[in-house]
Amino acid sequence: MSAQSRSGPYLYLLITMVLFGSAFTGSKVVVGEVPHEVAALLRFGGAAVFLVLLLGLSRDGARFRWRDLLVVGGSGLIGVFAYNFFFFWGLTLSPAVDGSLIVPVFSPVLTTVALLASGRETASALRITGLITAVAGAVVFFVGISIGGFSGERIGGDLLYVLAAACWAAYSIISKKVLHGMAPLRATTYATGAGALALAVAAVPSLSTTDWAGVRPSTWAIVVFLAIGPTAIAYLFYFRALRSVGPVTATISMFTVPVFGTVSSVVFLGESFTALQAVGALITIAGALLAVLQGSGKARQSTEDSDGNGLAPAGERASSTSTT
Fold this sequence. Notes:
Distance between the termini: 32 Å
Keywords: Cell membrane, Membrane, Transmembrane, Transmembrane helix
Family: Belongs to the EamA transporter family.
Region (Disordered): 299-324
Strand content: under 5%
Membrane topology: Multi-pass membrane protein
Number of strands: 0
Shape: globular
Main location: membrane
């Protein structure tokens, strides 16, 4: 295997995480000019159109089955509609930098908690320690908010980010079953399309009251970027990388999203955070890594046994935690 083919998947992951991180900043700009329901629709409605076009041009586009659409579309109501409804609502109340720290870290933590509670994974002492550490870090992070200027509105926004993370955790778990054996492009298109339709219904009351003439051209450019970059292309790059590196490496790479998201929010939005928030974030990330990766060895061994070369089936590969 050449050096280029070995490094390719990691380059895909790096580009994906940069795009994921930039999504928080870009989305914050959009919700500053249109209602959050409309902002979510613009991003994922545009992504759905782009993905449908890609699917139609692909060899897999002709393999349409209503059952696939209904099953994957149902999961999209959680992973696309509910997640983004809470996420964009949170952006109207809280800084994007909070979301870039809370959502990518809490999603794998809540996924791990749910799997432990259901008995689908084992609870070792180290995993429990990791979860407790992550929660302690979150407490420190929220205390740090009060030092930077306490606001009930900001706390409310951060809690909406937590709800968004919970939706993605549920979607990650459900995806293990419903996406099994389905090509990533088709699964992503169906889930995004169904979620976008639900977002359209939620946005109907706000469409007529939106000041469309007041939306700046630069904001429309950001909408296009969000739909194509951090949504359609990033997800496809992510799934393509998973074919080679597996879910464990992908999970680790997700913990770089807060770094890119924070830098983007500070540079482009002028947002800031206190030293105590930074400490809390680092504690939470460390605890989350410990909790998530303590269960990865068994999962990786199971994956290797499944096909003999360390790659999970298509459905397993498409289910690793990713969020923006």
